Amino acid sequence: MEEVCKELVQFMQLSSRLEIKLTATKNVLALSGAPEGRKFILENKNLLEAILTLTKDKIPLVVKDCYLSLVNLSAEDYFAKSVLEKYNVVPEFLKIISDPNSEFSHQVCMIMSNLTRSNFGSTKVVEIIFNDKSSRLNQLLDAFYKTKYNKHGASLNHLASLFTNLTQIPKARSFFLDETKNHIQRLLPYLQYQESLTRRGGIASMLRNCCFEYESHGWLLGEKVDILPHLLLPLAGPEEFSEADTDKLPLDLQYLPSDKTREPDEDIRKILIQSIILLCADESGREFVKSKNAYVIIRELHQWELKEQNSEVAEECEKLIQILISEEPNEGNLMNIDIPENYQRISETS
């Protein structure tokens, strides 16, 4: 295998003839598609460096093969640690994503999403981003917001996954939760973005991460953001409620059409419920969510999840319902709430 590596590296030079280079990159791409091949590449520094070098080749077919190989390689956790520690690739990758004329923004988005899955990767990338004076995160958001931003049709949907991963880190959460900006407000509509599950799920997960910043709950629930209706709407179905119950709901959830459908993805529904649970961490948050009659939406969702046999989502519903029907503890501590006995077996009601 050592001879194979030497031969590949020899062929994967910027100065190599096109047909030789392309044959080599195709072979490397095939290698990167299997765990053993990825291990082989990552154990051979010269080969990895040859792949990184050829991302700057003048031939798009060669460059695309190299980026696709990096997408596969970045699926391995140890790749992120190795590459982020030894090579200064992040600024260049972020520049490519932000460039509307780049042919490879989609592949690089996927690489960056993979690189930041771990705590190490997200911490390292956040550090690089915030040490850069080029406002790169703002540029990524601008690219994310604009329809057909990329001239070559790259969707940039995987930026949503990147934002999720970055918000594992408090400094990134603080950026998105800056009350002088409108980052959260502009991202909330993507919870309804039916064109892409990746974008929808990524933004849902990012918002859940932001809900771990308890001191921001008042702002998130308040008029300037009004996050609760955005979290509840994908969970609502076509059910009709009494006039009294309807009047207590946020305006966006009153009198929904008879063909209203719920978020189709089970994981996203679970994430949205978990976000609301986080917003109920203190007494003021719980009282606010209760006052908006979130209970009736979650009650109907719970029954629907049971019928659909989605046990994990149903369990999350039960957790939230127990919070919403419970009596407040004197201390306002969520962990000390007593659930009234007549509500403790809600899963058995029909």
Account of the protein in words:
The chain has helices at 2-11, 18-32, 35-42, 45-54, 60-73, 77-86, 90-98, 105-115, 119-131, 136-145, 159-166, 170-176, 183-187, 197-210, 217-221, 227-232, 243-248, 266-279, 283-291, 294-307, 311-325. The protein has 350 residues and is an all-alpha fold. Helix 2 (18-32) packs parallel to helix 5, helix 7 (90-98) crosses helix 8 and helix 7 runs parallel beside helix 10 (136-145). The termini are far apart. Mean pLDDT is 92; it is low at 335-350.
Task: Provide a compact summary of the structure.
This protein has 350 residues and is mostly helical. It has helices spanning 2-11, 18-32, 35-42, 45-54, 60-73, 77-86, 90-98, 105-115, 119-131, 136-145, 159-166, 170-176, 183-187, 197-210, 217-221, 227-232, 243-248, 266-279, 283-291, 294-307, 311-325.
In helices, the fraction of residues equals: 55-70%
Q: Quick one: biggest sheet?
A: none
Strand portion: under 5%
Mean pLDDT: 92
Tally of separate helices: 21
Low-confidence stretches: 335-350
Key features?
mainly alpha; single chain; 21 helices; 350 residues; disordered C terminus
